[in-house]
């Protein structure tokens, strides 16, 4: 594909502008670690919310979402629960305010709020740092797997005759450019450039949606999809038959393992609820929560993420999908069993997006990559510098030394992530490992730390060690998946390993806890009074009230769970509405809008008006 001079100018103009912003913000970010990693906790919730939404809008995920929307239609809205996307609802309702009340810089530093500073706490602290760094490397590899392939499709230069090597060189170059402005400006640079990136992406998404609506008709879309494609609801089976349209899509559905959709949905829901209750993994999502001004703003920030992310993103995804359905289906059908859905994106952009708008769309998609990658890179040095170097190696280090170390660590992790990206087989492999195996090792310990008073630092360490160890072993020896889950398709081995990893990790948590002493009452009471969680805290609550008769907890389990259910329905309507807009399905659109309005009014009364610091 050859881009015009206008399109190339727009792309490079955007890249240059982001670099300039990064260097402009260098002086402000270098005041200290709070400035560098958390922007002095002075940014309003809506700016951090836009930044977080921008960081979640990535190229790799967009390519995957276009694929699942093409194949599964409206039923595809449930598949991203693999991450799970509804963790933002748990955050907005109660997790974010609990976390922000700790008033720390990183998830590892938060451990001291919960477990104190004994040996168990030290081991727990190190296990969180290890997990955070492994997940950062995983996300960099995930970004690498998508951005190089994307750039090689559109940018005109050939660095190698080998297509894979050419894609890798593009990925290395784009990661290098992004790393420069992130390292220079820290959190200020990440947030401000992500505001710019979000504006570019929003305009791009609206543009693609409009083009799709003007170039296709409802009749043409209906003729290109099987019965049930426009229905988000499902029975025991998926019941999508592409026979007579694109026969090989049926084979792809079988390979994905989603035919028995109810079983898949139940597994995703089970995993998603547990992962969400554990709180965010120690990455950029957690960093945005800790960067807010206060707990109320932390909750509002997580609410604003959903409001910003889903409507605009799904305009682009659905627009690309319907253009491909109407105009590219014959070519896909001709591919037979070798069907390649990754060709949908370049085909649509090449044939339907006009000059100038195309440059903006490509800049927007590159912005999506840069947002995710920048946020990930900014998270890594916070753990190495603040939680290892400053704490254990050089407690008296000057601000200049700490900022310099942050520069070094950022570049080091980019290099390590690129190395693993070069050895990843495909996007799906990295995605499944991150969302299923790795987070399976994280879940048990991080659920129990919130809700069970007896849980201690030793239990946390052994739970994390057991879980992460099981995740690494199962990913290193994939044959074990086949032995444990005979008959399960390869793409779902990582998902179905989640219960096994969860059980092993829970055993490590419980044994580590019960075979060691409880944490001191002073630590537990301080944590409980500061964070005010609900759960199995009655012994500590009684001691806190005895110590301070005026103390009252604002924890309300029933109200929070009610708001979570309403919030998930609210979020799902935000996803479905833009899809119905592009499809021009009027009645379903108005039904979804009615659901959005009703759930918004409920949340205003039961959540927004009840927010406290």
Report on this structure.
By secondary structure, this protein is mainly alpha-helical. It has a domain at 5-424: Sodium/glucose cotransporter (Up-down Bundle). Helix content is 75%, strand content 0%. It contains 26 helices and no strands. It has helices at 5-24, 26-29, 33-38, 45-56, 59-72, 87-100, 107-115, 119-154, 163-215, 218-224, 247-256, 261-278, 284-290, 295-327, 329-334, 344-352, 357-393, 399-422, 427-451, 457-476, 479-484, 493-514, 521-531, 538-547, 557-583, 586-606. Helix 9 crosses helix 17 and helix 19 (427-451) runs parallel beside helix 22 (493-514). The N and C termini lie far apart (53 Å).
Query: How many helical stretches?
Result: 26
Fold-level CATH name of the domain at 5-424: Sodium/glucose cotransporter
CATH architecture of the domain at 5-424: Up-down Bundle
> Radius of gyration over alpha carbons?
24 Å
Shape: globular
Helix fraction by DSSP (H/I, runs of at least 4): over 70%
Please give the largest β-sheet: none
Structural class by helix and strand composition: mainly alpha
Number of strands: 0
Element pattern in H and E: HHHHHHHHHHHHHHHHHHHHHHHHHH
Indicate the CATH class of the domain at 5-424: Mainly Alpha
- What distance lies between the first and last C-alpha atoms, to the nearest angstrom? 53 Å
Quote the average pLDDT: 81
**Which ranges are low-confidence, i.e. pLDDT below 50, for 5 or more consecutive residues?**
none
Indicate the multimeric state. Answer: single chain
What is shown here, in short?
By secondary structure, this protein is an all-alpha fold. The protein contains 26 helices and no strands.
């Amino acid at each position: 594909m050859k881009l015009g001079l206008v399109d190339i100018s727009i792309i490079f103009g955007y890249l240059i502008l982001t670099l300039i912003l990064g260097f402009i913000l260098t002086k402000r970010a270098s005041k200290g670690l709070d400035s560098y990693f958390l922007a002095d906790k002075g940014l309003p919730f809506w700016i951090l919310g836009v930044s977080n939404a921008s960081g979640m809008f990535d190229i790799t995920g967009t390519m995957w979402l276009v694929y699942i929307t093409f194949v599964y239609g409206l039923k595809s809205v449930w598949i991203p629960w693999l991450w799970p996307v509804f963790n933002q609802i748990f955050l907005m309702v109660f997790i974010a305010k609990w976390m922000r009340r700790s008033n720390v810089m990183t998830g590892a530093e938060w451990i001291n709020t919960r477990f104190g500073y004994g040996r168990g706490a030290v081991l727990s602290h190190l296990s969180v740092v290890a997990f955070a760094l492994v997940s950062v490397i995983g996300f960099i590899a995930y970004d690498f797997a998508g951005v190089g392939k994307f750039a090689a499709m559109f940018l005109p230069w050939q660095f190698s005759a080998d297509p894979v090597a050419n894609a890798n060189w593009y990925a290395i170059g784009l990661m290098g450019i992004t790393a420069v402005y992130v390292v220079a400006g820290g959190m200020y640079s990440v947030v401000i450039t992500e505001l710019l990136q979000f504006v570019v992406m929003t305009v791009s998404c609206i543009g693609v949606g409009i083009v799709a609506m003007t170039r296709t008709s409802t009749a043409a879309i209906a003729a290109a999809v099987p019965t049930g494609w426009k229905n988000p609801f499902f029975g025991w089976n998926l019941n999508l038959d592409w026979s007579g349209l694109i026969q090989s899509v049926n084979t792809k559905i079988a390979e994905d393992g989603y035919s028995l959709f109810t079983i898949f949905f139940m597994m995703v829901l089970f995993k998603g609820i547990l992962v969400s209750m554990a709180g965010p993994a120690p990455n950029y999502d957690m960093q945005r929560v800790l960067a807010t001004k206060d707990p109320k703003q932390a909750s509002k920030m997580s609410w604003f993420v959903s409001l910003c992310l889903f409507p605009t993103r799904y305009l682009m995804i659905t627009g690309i999908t319907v253009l491909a359905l109407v105009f590219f289906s014959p070519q896909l059908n001709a591919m037979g069993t070798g069907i390649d859905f990754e060709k949908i994106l370049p085909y649509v952009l090449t044939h339907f997006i006009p000059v100038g708008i195309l440059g903006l769309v490509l800049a927007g998609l590159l912005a999506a990559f840069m947002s995710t990658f920048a946020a990930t890179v900014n998270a890594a040095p916070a753990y190495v510098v603040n939680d290892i170097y400053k704490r254990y190696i050089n407690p008296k280090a000057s601000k200049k030394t700490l900022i310099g170390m942050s520069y070094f660590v950022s570049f080091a992790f980019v290099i390590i992530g690129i190395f693993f990206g070069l050895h990843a087989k495909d996007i799906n492999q990295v995605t499944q490992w991150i969302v299923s195996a790795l987070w399976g090792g994280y879940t048990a310990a991080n659920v129990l730390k919130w809700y069970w008073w007896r849980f201690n630092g030793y239990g946390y360490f052994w739970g994390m060690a057991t879980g992460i160890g099981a995740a690494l072993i199962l990913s290193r020896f994939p044959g074990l998946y086949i032995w444990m889950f005979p008959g399960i398709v390869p793409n779902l081995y990582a998902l179905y390993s989640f219960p096994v990893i969860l059980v092993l990790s829970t055993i490590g948590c419980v044994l580590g806890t019960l075979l060691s002493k409880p944490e001191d009452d002073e630590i537990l009471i301080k944590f409980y009074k500061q964070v005010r969680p609900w759960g199995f805290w009655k012994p500590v609550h009684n001691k806190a009230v005895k110590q301070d008769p005026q103390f009252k907890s604002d924890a309300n389990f029933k109200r929070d769970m009610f708001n979570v259910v309403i919030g998930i329905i609210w979020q799902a309507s935000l996803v479905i509405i833009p899809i119905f807009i592009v499809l021009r399905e009027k009645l379903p659109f108005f039904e979804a809008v009615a659901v959005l309005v009703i759930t918004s009014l409920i949340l205003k009364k039961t959540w927004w008006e009840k927010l406290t610091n």
